[in-house]
Amino acid sequence: MDIKTGNIKKLFFHYLFAGMGSSVISSIYTTVDTMASGQYEGPVATAALSVITPIFTLFMCLSLLIGIGGAIPMSILRGEGDEEKSNEFFTLSLFYGIIVCAICTAFISIFREDFLRLCGANDEVLPYALAYIKWVIVAIPAFFLGVILSVFIRNDGAPFLAMLSVICGGVFNIFGDIFFVFTLDMGIEGAGLATMLGQMVSIAILFTHFLKNKCKLKIVKPKKILKKTLHIAQMGFSPFIVDLSYGFVVLIFNNQIMRYSNATYLAIYGALAAATILIQSLFYGVGQAIQPLASVNFGDRNFGRVSSILKYALITSIVMGLLFFSVAICFPEAILRMYMDATDEIIEHGTVIVRIFSFAFLTLGINVVSSYFLQAIELSSSALIISLLRGFVICLILLFLLPAAFGFGAIWLTLPLTELMTLVFVIFVLRRKRAHFQKRSASE
């Protein structure tokens, strides 16, 4: 289907299923690892995976900075008909991905224990986190390049190949967890090994795209490198902040929990963090699905189509948010037991915490998808403000203010209040932008 002329509704769902499939399966790595390790080792392994989460989000946010940062201008240039210049952004993104990957691999390898302690690990949790991360370090190159290539391949008209790669990697990870964790009695270390091998499977499938005749991605000699580099950074900065902020919030959450309470509540938050990653990844899928659609049509000045894409994305986000909220309200105990061999104490306190936390799901999707949309049409400043509000400014203020002023229990209101307050700004921006599109569409 032609992105410029095809039926908007069909195009949206075509890219939506592929985008959500890719995102949800990629989050399987953390989710299934937490489930398997928590069932085998107990709550201490769930706490260890909560400590690992900021590292995964660091990898994700950097790869999205480079991948989406290059894919947005590439798509807009293709909408304008400039294939040569569009491939300059692909070439630069691939180059920067390799450089950043090498730096991260060296950093985590050398400072792994210090970094894990920074993320909230104490003497009880640290050995489990170290056993897992030693395999993750091996997989860093495949993880980085996998995310970057997946974004470009999706924008190159092959969304289902991008989805297939993460499905195959995720399925391998699931069966790998069963085999290594339980059959070979490797515990949390086996979960790390399964994750590493799953990433290798995923990247191998992505490389097959370059063997196909319809592949338009090519390595070319870029011109005006500094200007294009700054453009990549500008376009990718909002998705970078979205993911970085979540990892940063988890890091601060972990440390605040250990400051005011103990590892029992860290295990509860570990389950919540894993569930939130899964839910947030689905909203990422919606955002990534509309990115090529919005960017290409924006480049072609089809403002009416861009407005319709936004409408479908927001409706989808609202429906999904209501569904996730309902599940969390009705089945909090099941969610906790899914991620660990929960004790009576965890069930007693955790069910209340899950229900409070779940109110964030009602507005989280709207905020995430709106940020992706605004970035896709090169409104990077508005997208950045949304990301900063929900990821750093409001969230960090509440994380320190609420437990200090109202006691430890108030900390669980942090995310729901953050997303609700961010939504006020999102509504203001989207109403102005939609009116602008309607006016431009009518005039043309």
Protein architecture, described:
By secondary structure, the chain is mainly alpha-helical. The chain has helices at 8-41, 43-79, 83-118, 126-155, 159-183, 188-207, 225-260, 263-299, 303-330, 332-339, 344-357, 361-376, 380-406, 414-443. The protein is globular.
Q: Detail the poorly predicted runs.
A: none
Mean pLDDT: 85
In total, the number of domains comes to 1
Estimated structural class: mainly alpha
- Fraction of residues in β-strands: under 5%
**Shape call:** globular
Q: Termini distance?
A: 24 Å
Count every beta strand, where a strand is a DSSP E run of 2 or more residues. Answer: 0
Count of helix runs: 14
Determine Rg (CA atoms, Å).
21 Å
Helix content: over 70%
* Helix/strand order: HHHHHHHHHHHHHH
Largest β sheet strand count, sense and barrel closure: none
Condensed summary:
With 444 residues, the chain is mainly alpha-helical. The protein has helices at 8-41, 43-79, 83-118, 126-155, 159-183, 188-207, 225-260, 263-299, 303-330, 332-339, 344-357, 361-376, 380-406, 414-443. It has 14 helices and no strands.
Helix/strand layout:
Layout: H1 8-41, H2 43-79, H3 83-118, H4 126-155, H5 159-183, H6 188-207, H7 225-260, H8 263-299, H9 303-330, H10 332-339, H11 344-357, H12 361-376, H13 380-406, H14 414-443
